[in-house]
Amino acid sequence: MLELRDLRKRLGQWSLRGLDLTLEPGEYFVLLGPSGVGKSVTLELIAGLRPPDHGQILWNGEDLTACPPEDRPFAIVYQDCALFPHLTVRRNIAYGPRVSGVAPGEVARRVASLAKLVRITDLLDRDVGSLSGGEEQRVALARALATQPELLLLDEPLSALDASIREYLRGELARLHTESSATFLHVTHAKEEARHLADRVGVMLEGRLVQVATPRELFREPTNVEVSEFLGLRNLLPLRCTEPGCGSVGGISLTGAALKPGRSHLWIRPEEVILSRDHPVESAADHPVESAANVLEGRLLGVEDADTLRRVHVTLGNEDLTLEVLLTDARFGALALSPGDRVYLSFGDAALHGL
Length: 355
Fold this sequence. Notes:
Layout: E1 2-11, E2 14-23, E3 28-32, H1 39-47, E4 54-59, E5 62-63, E6 74-77, H2 89-99, H3 104-117, H4 133-145, E7 151-155, H5 163-179, E8 183-188, H6 191-197, E9 200-205, E10 208-213, H7 215-220, H8 225-231, E11 236-238, E12 240-243, E13 246-249, E14 252-255, E15 265-268, E16 274-276, E17 294-306, E18 309-315, E19 322-328, H9 329-335, E20 342-347, E21 352-354
Parallel strand pairs: 3-8, 3-9, 6-7, 7-8
Antiparallel strand pairs: 1-2, 1-4, 4-5, 9-10, 11-15, 12-13, 13-14, 15-21, 16-20, 17-18, 17-20, 18-19
């Protein structure tokens, strides 16, 4: 188990501000945030490549804060792989255990086993200069795992790769984590990596850890406006609320349990808003009673593709106030809408989240 206690570091005008974090054994934890917030610095502090100004780094209860990198049971994989250019793939993977004094027979066994695990057996005798980006990253993973680390630190390992290779290696990382006994700490700015890989996600903004949650909790229940804006959540609107259960957005009244005094913003989940041509009727089969707690009239502003869905933009009588709704292509086609058409939006408590 990794424990970071009140970890602080100042670099010029930037500072890491009292980071507290615990990783459970065998967990895949993703530290998510934009560039420059301290994700890589945090990894380097954990790895022992930088000394903290304050705080402790503990592994299974042992204080490693002052230990040199070689005495920590950790390994790190960087975005640029940092392979040894003068060594073959085989010798790159073998380097760590060999210099640690592992017997030659055991080194050879580990190399063969890891090459099979990351599917590079046919590359073992290649020069690293002849490898593709995806191949280099798999070699880097094998080299890191060859030392049998208890904690694997991954610093933006997929960000320099093409989209198709990135998606493939994302699946490979999930498989490697399942098949290894190591704890993974992965830093990235890519939300999809966090969504698909993490057991838990920590969002870091401006040198602070501002929310830790499972991916489902994070993307459905962000705790504040900063996190919501970073995640790119749609329909994040300023809220005015003076009594529980009632509020207004841009002068439009809304009701819902998420509306409470003291909350400054409202997030309306676009996938849980029902769009219709006609005012929804509670008895209509496709408009359940609970879905019509709020009914708003608007006009269709435009439509764009959102992967396999359609993102529909609706203006609510004020060009400064628009909402987005996610619809399947079939549902949008059945509505037969054109820009300027009058539409109705209906939603209940499930669609509302106060911040």
